[in-house]
Specification:
The protein is an alpha+beta fold. 51% of the residues lie in helices and 17% in strands. It is built from 13 helices and ten strands.
């Protein structure tokens, strides 16, 4: 079985800089061409800006139609896939978690993590031309600074322009979803999400997470319904399925071994669980994507 490739941050232009900028066609011309045309997992954050053409981009096994004016936000550990299309043009802004933490305030980092959180907001947003032109102005400003200057001031200048892009994206997405920094229960929901992502192969019970968070199951359900309009169990199941998909493609383990690693007492239980939410068997999913 061909395993899912982990693509690491590799800045070929400025090796010691944890921010990078690429043009779409430049990326597809690199020697990682074959890797990015297959499903691969990111170890950094990415913003894709489409300036020309139409096509498809896959994020966490879901296909998104892209066109001029589309922006995609993809977070660390998500899975993506490019489709080769010579008519598409655009830019990629790439940066590590360390770049965010070192260059932004605590509140700005929190907003950025919400912006890239696929449970809070769709990775895709398409904007009308006047607003898109505002993004393009900032993109071209970063491009000029990034490729023309390498002095001590450059990082701060790029950081300021990127901050404007992230803030504009945050404002647009906040109008469409619950990514509001001071929204009631948001902090509790993010803590719950983090716990589930860390422990979902240990337990899939709402009561267990409620106890870990020192609250009742009813409170945890209220938290989830307030933020994403879903029950806590639905949130758990969605995270488990995503983690199972990644595991199925990221390891040569057999389906039986994965079932036990994922906390199922019997492999048939994982089969039924996976089939219920995906209408596909674990083996069928693995074969379809490899």
């Amino acid at each position: 079985m061909k395993e899912l490739k982990n693509v690491k941050f590799n800045n070929q232009t400025r090796p010691n800089f944890t921010f990078d900028m690429l043009e779409w066609e430049e990326l597809l011309a690199r020697d990682i061409h074959d890797e990015i045309l297959n499903l691969h997992k990111l170890t950094f954050y990415e913003i894709l800006i489409i300036t020309q053409g139409e096509g498809t981009h896959t994020i966490d096994f879901q296909d998104y139609e892209i066109q001029k004016g589309t922006l995609l936000t993809i977070r660390k550990d998500q899975v993506q896939k490019f489709f080769y299309n010579k008519n598409i043009k655009g830019f990629l802004l790439l940066f590590t978690e360390d770049f965010l933490i070192s260059q932004f305030s605590k509140e700005e980092v929190a907003k950025s993590f919400q912006l890239f959180n696929e449970l809070l907001t769709s990775p895709k947003i398409t904007v009308a031309e006047p607003v898109f032109n505002e993004f393009l102005t900032l993109i071209h400003f970063i491009k000029a600074e990034y490729f023309s200057h390498g002095d001590d001031f450059s990082k701060s200048i790029i950081r300021s322009a990127l901050h404007m892009i992230l803030t504009k994206l945050y404002r647009l997405k906040a109008k469409k979803g619950p990514i509001l920094l001071k929204k009631k229960y948001l902090e509790q929901f993010l803590a719950f999400q983090k716990l589930v992502e860390e422990k979902c192969f240990e337990t899939k019970k709402v009561l267990d997470y409620a106890q870990l968070m020192a609250c009742t199951s009813k409170t945890l359900n209220n938290v989830c319904r307030s933020i994403v309009d879903k029950s806590a169990k639905v949130v758990i199941d969605e995270i488990v399925i995503t983690q199972l998909k990644r595991l199925l493609l990221n390891t040569p383990l057999s389906i039986t071994e994965i079932a036990y690693q994922a906390g199922f007492y019997e492999p048939t239980n994982m089969y039924k669980y996976f089939k219920k939410f995906t209408n596909n068997s674990p083996e069928g999913f693995r074969q379809a994507h490899t």
